[in-house]
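Subject: sequence -> structure tokens, single chain

Hey, anyone have a minute? Need the predicted structure for the following. Not urgent.
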Amino acid sequence: MWEILVAYCVFIVLASVIGGTLPSLVTLTHRRVQLTLSFVSGVMLGVALLHLLPHSLQQSPQNLDRPMLACLCGLLFMFLLIRCFHFHHHEFEHAHSGIHEHHGSCGHHHSHPKQKTDSESTMNQSELAILPAPEIAKNFSWLGLAFGLGVHTLIDGLALAAAFSAERLHSVIPALGTFLAIVLHKPLDAMTITALMRAKKATFRQQTAINLIFALTCPIGAILFALSISNPVLMGPEVLSAILAFSAGVFLCISLGDLLPEVHFHTHDRIRLSLMLLLGILIAWGIDKLLGHSHSL
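Reply:
Had a minute. Here:
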């Protein structure tokens, strides 16, 4: 069944590469990005709490403190990574007309409308196209961004392979939920890197090279896990439990990091954004039930 994991990695690479080319192919709007973020965050939130964490607890039924500590460590690790490298942005390029940029403490910056002038009274702010904003991009390094997202993506690869290992003996399509969360999120990350590189006047060749390297990072994480699993000393049940719980904490941090700013700074599209969030969670729950997973200790 490891062929399924290989297929997952191929799809993730393709999705990441396509995501990295989106800024130069389509017109992205604030609304489209935020609706996508809400949906993907819902999937990641559901996968973290309904898939990864329960599987971690199953691997370590005698000591539940260790998985929960590993989950906390994963959440804190990702939070500190974001704090140090300011990398988890998905809108480096905002429409400059009537939008006020708010920079959060975690490196996120969020936009909300200024008071409209007469000329803007009929303009729907959420439909504004995302345009180059050099005054924003100059505050960030695409190398730091790529490094932070690369570490995050390496963990995604470990999470995918660990979830696959935990589910492969009792599931028709193992790690489907984890794969879905990753394959939906990678295009956003790749788009963030190439958008900032473009704003920084990087060449098309440079953007393509970094996009390909970033796309291959997740399979590298999966390969590292696959090489370790053959060694019972390196990959016993306790280690597998820790990896799953740590990954759950990372997913929690990423999903909540995308969601919570929207609660505070976005007054528009509340119903749409909430519905997309619930849809993502419902899909994660539906996959769990469809595949007949049981998480008894």
